Backbone:
């Protein structure tokens, strides 16, 4: 499958090729296994060659299910010069950036060194990825901005990497994954939030990760489709943890972006949290306001995958609760479930909301003039 076709009878919103957009979830890939070596100390090059990596779980090259397409990517996204999908800047420009008039593209590299038990190696690989993003991508095309990848299981080294990159205009957010050793509200991750808040950088929480736990709350599933729909379950757990551990109360200027897990579940999660908080708030006195208030004030959402109900009014009701100013358009290029910009938004949206959806919200959140 290369493109997600919609069979809904509702008309899609027209989008001309002149409409500038922000794509808030692009996945660059390395062309070769050793492409990071120029950014790694000899010690770590030797370590990788002799010992490899010791992960919290295996299958670091990707989620543990065979995909319909290699690298879970579009069949037509192989660069003509060779290499995996997403590894060529010139082909990305030709296939994604230019034809869709992408004015801002946010890079979220995966398989980066997060989720490795050797925290020093994890930190070194993440720092190398960040240097690589500048050299290969953002310095070559000013439309592209990078996410700071951090060794998330070591909060102190992650915070140091954020402070090292703070103020560098090549970077616009910090990147975490939704599957970690512990839920994201736990204190081991607080140094990351403190550093991000100090730097004025949003924290993006992308689906996937390698925390060593089963990928659903009830164990390992049988099918890839269970993993795909399970991302929303994982992000609900992460978001509940962030609220109830008091992260948003402690870091009131922190901005979180939930990436590639949908958003239709957000109102029902918030409603349930609010109801339960009213009865059990004495257990969490540090959570001073209804959970929904933190979520609506401090959380943004990318649109791929975007829920697709039969009645567009149902989608609009959900977005009305979240806020049209909280949605960020994303394609997920070059992956197989790529969302085509011209077809993702149904008709019936005001021009002001369309502009905010496709570009304005992202520019405001990421501080792009």
Residues:
């Amino acid at each position: 499958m290369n493109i997600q076709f919609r069979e809904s009878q509702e008309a899609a919103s027209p989008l001309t090729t002149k409409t500038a957009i922000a794509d808030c979830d692009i996945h660059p890939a390395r062309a070769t296994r050793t492409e990071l070596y120029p950014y790694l100390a000899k010690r770590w090059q030797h370590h990788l060659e002799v010992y490899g990596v010791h992960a919290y779980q295996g299958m670091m090259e990707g989620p543990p299910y065979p995909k319909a397409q290699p690298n879970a990517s579009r069949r037509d996204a192989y660069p003509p010069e060779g290499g995996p999908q997403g590894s060529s800047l010139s082909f990305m420009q030709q296939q994604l950036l230019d034809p869709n008039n992408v004015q801002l593209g946010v890079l979220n590299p995966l398989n980066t060194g997060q989720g490795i038990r050797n925290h020093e190696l994890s930190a070194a690989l993440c720092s190398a990825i960040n240097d690589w993003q500048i050299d290969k991508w953002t310095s070559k095309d000013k439309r592209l901005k990078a996410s700071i990848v951090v060794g998330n299981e070591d909060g102190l080294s992650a915070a140091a990497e954020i402070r090292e990159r703070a103020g560098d205009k090549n970077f616009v957010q910090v990147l975490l994954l939704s599957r970690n050793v512990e839920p994201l509200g736990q204190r081991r991750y607080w140094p990351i939030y403190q550093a991000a808040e100090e730097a004025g950088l949003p924290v993006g929480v992308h689906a996937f990760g390698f925390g060593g736990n089963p990928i659903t709350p009830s164990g390992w599933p049988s099918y890839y489709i269970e993993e795909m729909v399970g991302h929303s379950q994982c992000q609900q757990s992460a978001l509940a943890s962030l609220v109830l551990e008091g992260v948003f109360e402690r870091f009131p200027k922190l901005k979180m972006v939930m990436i590639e897990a949908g958003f239709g579940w957000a109102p029902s999660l918030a409603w349930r949290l609010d109801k339960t908080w009213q009865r059990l708030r004495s257990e969490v006195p540090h959570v001073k306001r209804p959970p929904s208030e933190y979520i609506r004030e401090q959380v943004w959402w990318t649109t791929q995958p975007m829920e697709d109900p039969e009645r567009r009014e149902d989608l609009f009701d959900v977005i009305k609760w979240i806020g049209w100013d909280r949605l960020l358009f994303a394609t997920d290029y070059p992956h197989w479930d790529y969302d085509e910009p011209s077809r993702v938004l149904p008709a019936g949206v005001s021009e002001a909301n369309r502009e905010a959806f496709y570009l304005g919200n992202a520019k405001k959140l990421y501080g792009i003039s």
Remarks:
- The beta strands are 21-26, 102-107, 144-149, 171-179, 203-209, 256-259, 299-302, 327-328.
- The radius of gyration is 20 Å.
